[in-house]
Amino acid sequence: MASLPKFSTILTWTLYFIPVYIFILEPLLRDSFPGLQAGYPDSTSLFDSSDAPGPGINLTDDSFISPEDGVPFTCPGSEGYQVHLLSREPLVMYIENFVSEAEANHILDKSVNKYTPSIVYDGQTERIDPSKRLSDRALLDRDDTIRCLEDRARAFQGWHPDLYIERMWAQRYNASGHYRHHYDWAGSLARGGDRFSTFMVYLEADCEGGGTNFPRLKMPAGKEWCRFLECERSGKGKEMGITFKPIKGNAVFWENLRPDGTGYPETWHAAFPVTRGKKVGLNIWSWYQPKRRNRGR
Ligand SMILES: O=C(O)CCC(=O)C(=O)O
Ligand SMILES: [Fe+2]
């Protein structure tokens, strides 16, 4: 019968194994199987800081992200918006006059010749599917107005270094245009990043219908909310959650991710069909991509 190794031999092997695991095996496993990582388990970890980029999107890819490239810009006029808190958990705020009339008109003018049909993304492929989403979208150049909005959106959220404003798109809905219920988040934080928050800004609202519906949010008590929310539907309306009326210059802001990095189910939302006229929305999405510890060192 083979004899068992001596205790001193096991101890020596263990002493050799520890540095091999720490410096070779663990980094190899972490890069090969990112899903095995602990994720973002506690509330302080979502906005923890460290010093190297994670593997999500390429943060210099300016077709997706608006990098802070130091290009100077001027913001005309004052920022006189008013904020109304609708829900703390998830955080949902209504912002009156987030975009001035001049800013909205400028973006409408600049986008007018740029629209192409909007696409939907199912996690693998992008395609046009008018049964889910019927609208046109236009990628906006980063001129002074857009840079001012990027800056405003970053300031509103406390200038966090791990939040990156995505390139902005105007979305145009003509009669029967709509966007079925969906989430803006993708559950992709463990793969590097996800959409932390959304500003849904109404640039043009010369329409009937076209409200932004959240079936899982509760109607707030104050009747003052009827300026911004549809209160007309009685009885039935309660089952339908809440619907924001499109009002030019105003915005709905919400956070998509919980502090542990998972998505809020309450942020399930839709653009109800426009039944007459035209609506143009502006999405300002903040991509959250934390830096990874112990990478690239
Ligand atoms: O237009 C709206 O009201 C909502 C649009 C939307 O949810 C989106 O573009 O992701
Ligand atoms: Fe959305």
Automatic annotation (TrEMBL):
Gene Ontology CC annotation, any one: endoplasmic reticulum
Keywords: Dioxygenase, Iron, Membrane, Metal-binding, Oxidoreductase, Transmembrane, Transmembrane helix
Organism of this sequence: Penicillium bovifimosum
UniProt keyword Transmembrane, yes or no: yes
Highest taxon of source: Eukaryota
The name this protein goes by in its record: Fe2OG dioxygenase domain-containing protein
PANTHER family from the UniProt entry: PROLYL 4-HYDROXYLASE ALPHA SUBUNIT, TRANSMEMBRANE PROLYL 4-HYDROXYLASE
Cofactor: L-ascorbate
Record-level Gene Ontology MF annotations: iron ion binding; L-ascorbic acid binding; procollagen-proline 4-dioxygenase activity
All residue ranges annotated as the Fe2OG dioxygenase domain in the record: 164-290
Transmembrane segments: 7-24
